[in-house]
Amino acid sequence: MSFVNEYLSAIINEKRLFPSQTALRTPQYNNIITINGIQNLPQEQTTFWINASISIKNLRQPFWYMTCIKCRQKADLDNQTSYFNCYNCNESSVETIPRCRFQAQLTDHTGSLIATFFSENAEKMLNCTAQELIHIPSDQNISSVVRLSTATRADAYSGGSQTKYNVISLLESDSESSTSSTTNDT
């Protein structure tokens, strides 16, 4: 299985990624919204908490990619030179590290949405590091269902016509469902 996904690579190259270590307080019960309630949020509110089950639907998606060690943005392999190039730093032959990333479905009693997990949050959910993911054979499945609380950020792209949800914080949950903080960019 190839870990190259041109569609996700294009999105990553177009948009600067935000750090995953966002300082968020544990939400009060009345600050948790439903997935269906996201559409009723004020447009300027882009971070919110939801209580949701998290499941990985596509076990064949790439779970890691290489990033520039300086800026942590995606680095592309130049097949002719076998070196990585960072377009964010505008440098060739950059030193790289793997970074974990995958998409999962967040579901509550009102609906579901697809959100992207990055870096430490993705590693926490999978219970392994990006470095360890590199060594997992592509035909070996990664567990598909986990229950955690997440803070999520929504980002608009394609001229604001589409919304992408990024998980920015995780909170372990003892209940059957998980609390998620989600960001909505429209």
UniProtKB/TrEMBL annotation:
Signal peptide: none
Domain Replication factor A C-terminal as annotated: residue spans: 60-142
Domain of life from the UniProt record: Eukaryota
Name this protein carries in UniProt: Replication factor A C-terminal domain-containing protein
UniProt lineage: Eukaryota, Viridiplantae, Streptophyta, Embryophyta, Tracheophyta
